[in-house]
Write a structure and sequence with these properties.
Blueprint: H1 5-9, E1 16-17, E2 37-38, E3 41-45, H2 48-57, E4 62-67, E5 70-74, E6 83-87, E7 101-108, H3 112-125, E8 130-133, E9 137-143, E10 149-155, E11 162-164, E12 167-168, H4 177-184, E13 197-204, H5 208-218, E14 222-225, E15 231-235, E16 243-246, E17 262-269, H6 273-285, E18 290-292, E19 299-302, E20 308-312
Parallel strand pairs: 3-6, 7-10, 13-16, 17-20
Antiparallel strand pairs: 1-11, 2-17, 3-17, 4-5, 5-6, 7-13, 8-9, 9-10, 11-12, 14-15, 15-16, 18-19, 19-20
Helix pairs in contact: 3-4
Length: 316
């Protein structure tokens, strides 16, 4: 759902530079550390070979490992896993509306020229995509063969970000496609480059106030944008958002069924085990159940709408 700068901020006071510490609403208690980053997402798909063709040929990822009905994908020249695909033969396509859980996961390219090369390649292969300039970033939107939402984007330099009061300015304006293609130069698109990461995850939820309580006051994310219609954006470390939440699926939206193509799990990677334990305590104190995996090293959580999150520290 798009909302332009005029729609959101047309009558607001003049924007100011979004310098570190000048924007966002932190939680009252536990706050995720600045070094928080996202890890891989796990997706359930109907046909693994079909999905692999899409993720390799259209997105430009490469297969790191394949084991039976599962496969792990990463960027070219980088062994950091970004996506795990898990086949459930005959899984139903993800619906466009009415389902909680995944809206999209977002792959962050290292710079604007890389996004320009991606845009140019999409045109050359005839792949369709939506687009948006979000003021803090520039984005392309796609859907995989199971109708799962994907964003591919590049951030604008942080010194260009603006705020109104404590709120970071984000919107959905038209994207400058010719400018992006010009930025690409003559270098060919050779797949997702080294330095590509999982930038954020965006979820359909049932209620934004409850999302704020769980993901900010419980999980420890700062609220960064709260006037975008029907949405709340949250982040750690001054980023524009590691998590988007919205109620655009409608008031009657329900959790996906086990036989649906869907997001199985997304991952937050913290800098140390102490941060994982502090997060666990914060959620428990607010009445949200948590559990440790079999190794006792990773925390498995379900949000109020049954979307699963894994919190770990791969840097210990």
């Amino acid at each position: 759902m798009g909302a332009s700068t005029r729609d959101i901020f047309g009558g607001a006071a003049s924007p100011e530079p979004a310098e570190p510490g000048t924007y966002g609403q932190p939680p009252k208690g536990f706050r995720l550390p600045e070094a928080t980053r996202l890890g891989r997402v796990h997706l359930q798909v109907a046909d693994l070979p079909r999905s692999l063709r899409y993720y390799e040929d259209v997105l430009g990822l490469r297969t790191l490992h394949r084991d039976g009905a599962s496969a792990t994908l990463a960027a070219e020249g980088d062994d950091t896993p970004l996506i795990e695909l898990h086949e459930r033969r005959g899984a139903r396509p993800s619906p466009l509306r009415g389902a909680l859980g995944l809206y999209h996961f977002a792959i962050l390219l290292p710079d604007r020229p890389a996004l320009g090369r991606f845009v140019r390649n999409l045109g050359e292969i005839g792949a369709r995509a939506g687009e948006g300039d979000h003021l803090v970033s520039e984005s392309l939107y796609l859907r995989d063969p199971d109708n799962l939402g994907i964003e591919v984007y590049a951030d604008r330099p942080r010194h260009t970000w603006r705020r109104v009061g404590r709120e970071l300015m984000m919107a959905t304006d038209p994207l400058d496609i010719p400018g992006l293609v010009a930025e690409a130069g003559r270098q060919a698109w050779n797949g997702m480059p080294r330095g590509t990461t999982m930038g954020h995850v965006h979820l359909h939820v049932g209620d934004l106030d409850r999302a704020a309580d769980f993901y900010s006051e419980g999980l420890g994310l700062d609220r960064t944008v709260w006037h975008y219609p029907g949405a709340l954006f949250l982040a750690a470390g001054g980023y524009h958002h590691h998590l988007g939440t919205n109620t655009w699926a409608g008031s009657g939206a329900t959790a996906p069924a086990p036989e649906d193509a869907r997001l199985l799990e997304w991952t937050i990677d913290l800098p140390d085990a102490a941060s994982v334990s502090a997060l666990e305590q914060s959620l428990t104190q607010r009445g949200y159940p948590t559990q440790r995996d079999a190794s006792r090293q990773e925390l498995v959580i379900r949000d109020p709408w049954n979307t699963q999150l894994r919190v770990l520290s791969s840097r210990r």
